[in-house]
Amino acid sequence: MTDKNALELKDLSVAYRVGGRNRAVLRNVNLKIGAGESYGLVGESGCGKSTVALSVVRYLPRNGSITGGSIALDGQDLMKLDAEALRRARADSVSMVYQDPGKALNPSIRIGRQLTEIFELAGVAGQNATDKAIAILNRVRISDPPSVMQRYPHQLSGGMQQRVAIAMALANDPSMLILDEPTTGLDATVEAEVLDLIGQLRRELSASILFISHNLAVVSNMCDRVGVLYAGMLVEEGSTKDVFNDPRHPYTVALLRCLPRGGQRKDQGRLDTIPGFLPGIGANIVGCAFADRCALATERCRAEPPPLYELEDGRLSRCHYHDKAQSLPRATPAEVSAPAPKQAPPVLRVEGLNKTYGSYGHPLRAVKDVSVSLSPGETLGLVGESGSGKTTFARLLLGLVAPDDGGSIELEGKKLAPRLASRSEDQVKAVQIVFQNPDSALNRSHSIRHILSRALKRLGGLSGKTLDTRLEELVRSVRLTDRHLAVKPRQLSGGLKQRVAIARAFAGDPRIVVCDEPTSALDVSVQAAILNLLADLQTKQDVSYIFISHDLGVVRYLSDKIAVLYLGRIMEFGPSEAVFSGPHHPYTEALLSAVPKLDRTESSRIRLDGEIPSAANPPKGCVFHTRCPRKIGAICETQEPELTEAEAGHTIRCHIPYAELARLQASNLGQQPSARLADGVS
Amino acid sequence: MVFLGGQVLPGNVGRAILGPFADQRAVDTLNHSLGVDRPLLVQYGSWIWKFVQGDMGMSYVFRAPVAPFVIDALGNSLKLALIAFVLVVPIGILGGVIAALNLNRPLDRIISLGGLSVTVLPEFVTGIILILIFGVWLRWLPIAATWPKGAGFFTQIYYLILPSLPLFLVLFGYIARMARSGMIEALDADYTRTAVLKGLPWRTVIWRHVLRNALLPTITVIATQTGYLIGGLVVIETLFRYQGIGSLIFTAARGKDFPMLEAGILTIGIVYSVATLAADFLYSVLNPRIRLGAEQ
Amino acid sequence: MSATDTPIGAAPDTTTKRSPWGEVLHSLLRSRTFLTGFGIVLFWVICALFGEHLVPYDPLADDIINALAPPSAEHWFGTDQIGRDVFSRVIVGSRDILTVAPLATILATIAGTALGLVIGYFRGIVDDVISRVLEAFMAIPVVIVALLAIVALGTSKTTVIVVIGLSFAPIIARTVRSAVLAERELDYVAAAKLRHEGAMHTMFVEILPNVIPPILVETTVRLGYAIFAVATLSFMGFGIQPPSPDWGLSISNNYGMIGGGFWWTVLFDALAIASLVVGVNLVADGVHGAFND
């Protein structure tokens, strides 16, 4: 490390004023980022990550205030600056990029103007400023900068907007670049592109980077050193490799175990979880903040706050027992009773399902000619970027949206009416859903008891005493207690709300439950518990899942079959292991390659160029040919390939023969094809 | 709709005019001469057709064409409304902007609560209080809006200050409130954070990045306020004895002079539509999302 | 119990111990705006209920000899053209307006809520057509609608209530509709469909409780405008009729003499209207703030 740090936080404490009281968000955070260094800050939501970023640029929300400590940027104490000096510091030495680029750019000013005004601050105006703006857009790999400069933000895609935001951040050649969840909310392939860009820029530029993310894998790929934040405190710090491979704080240990890694599957064991809850904002913490959730905790942990112990190699851990951290016992036993494989007729058979929306006179084919089948107790994972038709397909199954004529959905051998209203009571209760966002899925005016009782009454056909008995069972089956029944949804945490939503879906003993991104709004520790619960319920009740997720690690953990969708078409369908281990469709290959891996194994990655085409105007021929890295020629542009069987039960929609795909993909992956793909972790 | 209001609701026009004790034959004769005994749709068609040609019909009361009355009154009302409008738009916006920039400080409280209070008061109440203060006690301003014949431009304005003030007050709070909430939203927006973190001077952030986005919604709202403004004119013109479209409608309603009433109200409808269209146009010119939406 | 039993603690969030309504009440009671407004409104409600027992003179009794007397120890607010005591009239004058305006508001709220729920929930052509009609309706100033209707139907308290109620109903319907449009996109409505719930259950049991906050806010705001409208109509001679000591009516009868310096005949009525309207709007502002914190 150089003698002068790009950024140094000393005992930084920040509080938010809520309900007339100051509540601590950051507690004595110390950290140093050296010149040219890239530092990652990770932690679950509510731990104070973004507050660190906003403190550094002195842009806390109105109710936030720095209650102690200091922030030094290039050795200059930011706390002592007056308004003008602070402005100069922002103009000259620090820049920030954050989540949701669509909101970060001014909607009513052209891109060009938003860039040139930065150069004007530095005294460069007119044509010179325009030239510099073009140069910086080139630098973030935007093609045709002059035309992009004429546009307004809403005319650019999300990925392009984030590139522009990065260009704006780099325009003043900052010594400190703060990236706060810069790829959260972007599609996997776009995220990969943006991360690649940041990686390249890191090598080209001199700026130090503070990279903030909830995604451990992303941080592990982008950063030299990493700090783990818990309840507003830095609990562990060290080189990225050390922290992720050899964690020294029980929280880091537990967090890493919550992730489905290395191609782990539900029948190989449950994920570990972290019991209990994060201390609330402003909670009074005596002793170690993690003690209540830590199986290693002793009386000492509860009474005596651990200091940040300095370990070898400049590592830090805020744990009295940092040498024993890795012996943390599992909170959740791993063993499972593997269900006996059975031969049963499919519970669901979908043939030639289509859905066309009319969109300003253009037919928009949201789902085209989809056929799948699913056995009882199996999970079908639906994979694809946004706009691929995953959710529409789920809504067709549920009857919330009526499909085009032709095509059929059969449930246990009986045809399902296209519209929900014409389905029988039995069919209605047989197909249920767990939505992505429990805040939207649970009626906020009703108590949990009301929500579940109503479901039991309508779906279970129960009443009176039997209903009460069943209600108790149901609540216990999702591991809630009677105490939770009296409250309204907003009095529960996200994970508990999702359990209520799961209980509701199971009220009428469903045959199929659609899970539409059920964990994407949750932190990893909560996600693990929900995935375990879903897996347990499936074993116990022999229910089938249609599981939608953008997180391939999660999909792989829970799924027996996978369908990969692109522009409403199935590009690949087959047993989960076959699809993940390959050979696979070039699109699947690209999706897998886009997933950031926790273990850094650099290899040539496959990147998709360009945007996802509009479903209203899909490319001719193979719909994927505009972005396909393995396009073979004119046939791809003129003729749409059929879904052909590669192996038994594994179909791929591609003109390249299966054997050829196998050869291409093996050579691309080098010597260890499966090892790299095995870490489908987000 | 206006037509229906004027023609159908009274039932028998002739009876309404001549009163309950008139001879039935007189009522019939009058109805026939007015043409109100024809089928409704025919009446409506011919009324619209004539209106388009500039013939607004004959006044029942004055037994003279309606058009000159309406046009004169409209001109007078526009004078009054314009004075209020020209003053209130910039001052209201300025008030809202200043309040937002001093959020939750005393200045904001004063503008917000003051604005709220004056906005919700009926025009005749503020009118009476203003007349008492400026017309009766201080004797600075004339209490009736009837200027001497041949009065010049500035004299007319002098006479119109007091009548336009209540209209100003009603609109001020409303516009200031909209501008304030638009500003708060824009100040909290991510793009404002981006602009500040670029190191732009505060002045530039406000002028270039905040104001335009903040005031877009206010512009549409101002146009919808023309409706309230017209409602206010009825009251104000009565209170100040001013010959405008509002007092014309009021007098026509009292005198059951339906052609006059209909013409007056239709004129208001046209003014309102024009104002709304103008606002829509302005909004789409200022908002690139709408202007360029088709390219996406 | 299964192998993956995760201990679940109590509700973790310390900030949400109160029920949502308790929280609204709590923030109302801490709002100075609300309390001030509430105090003013309460004062006038008491005057409306018990006014004649509180005032020194019969508000309707004339006393020609003492006509147009300026404020004095005997007549705190002076007397009007036929010698009636202005103070007594102002105190009792709140009764009619505080009957008519709230009833009109209740009518508007019920009609508007029902209409807004239905068109927001069913959408489609019915919504398009009704929304257009409502928009056209709202384009005409309330005063003019009222004027037309009252000319046609004649003046009575009932007419004023119905006219103002129906003129405000579209505004409430619009508020309810936009709230319902947002609600029906939420997944709990889809979940209700997936239980085969009927439209009535979905509208009234699932959606209605969630749109009550905006309805309450809009209703308090509308009450302010209803008072505005009733006072204005009375002033124009189309509202409350003599011999009521109503404020708008009194101003209407006396403002012609304003040039003669008889300010007390109108000033106190004007201030009374002003205080009531501002009071109601302070309450509305407080309610709005409490729901949007």
What would your notes on this structure say?
The complex is a heterotrimer of chains A (682), B (296) and C (293). With 682 residues, chain A is of the alpha/beta class. Chain A contains 25 helices and 24 strands. In chain A, the strands form four sheets. Chain A has an eight-stranded mixed beta sheet with strand order 6-7-8-3-9-10-12-11, with helices on both faces. An eight-stranded mixed beta sheet of chain A has the order 18-19-20-15-21-22-24-23, sandwiched between helices. Chain A has a four-stranded antiparallel beta sheet with strand order 2-1-4-5, covered by helices on one side. The longest helix of chain A is centred in the C-terminal third of the chain and has 18 residues. The radius of gyration of chain A is 26 Å and the shape is globular. Chain A starts with a strand and ends in a 5-residue tail after the last helix. The C terminus of chain A is likely disordered. Chain B is globular. In chain B, 77% of the residues lie in helices and 0% in strands. The N terminus of chain B is likely disordered. Chain B is built from 13 helices and no strands. Helices cover 70% and strands 0% of the residues of chain C. The N terminus of chain C is likely disordered. Chain C is elongated, with a radius of gyration of 24 Å. With 293 residues, chain C is an all-alpha fold. In chain C, helix 4 runs parallel beside helix 7. The chains are: A alpha/beta (682), B mainly alpha (296), C mainly alpha (293). Chains in contact: A-B, A-C, B-C. Chains A and C meet through strand 18, helix 16 and helix 19 of A and helix 8 and helix 9 of C.
In short:
Chain A is α/β, with parallel strands linked by helices and about 675 residues long. In chain A, helix 18 (about 495-505) runs parallel beside helix 19 (about 525-540).
Features:
heterotrimer; A: 682 residues; alpha/beta; 8-stranded mixed sheet; 25 helices; 24 strands; 34% helix; disordered C terminus; B: 296 residues; mainly alpha; 13 helices; globular
Strand composition percent of chain A: 15-25%
What's the overall average pLDDT of chain A, rounded? 89
Structural class of chain B: mainly alpha
What's the rounded overall pLDDT mean of chain B?
78
Oligomeric description of these chains: heterotrimer
Helix content of chain B: over 70%
Element pattern of chain B in H and E: HHHHHHHHHHHHH
Low-pLDDT stretches of chain B are 1-20
Q: Quick one: overall form of chain B?
A: globular
Main beta sheet of chain B: none
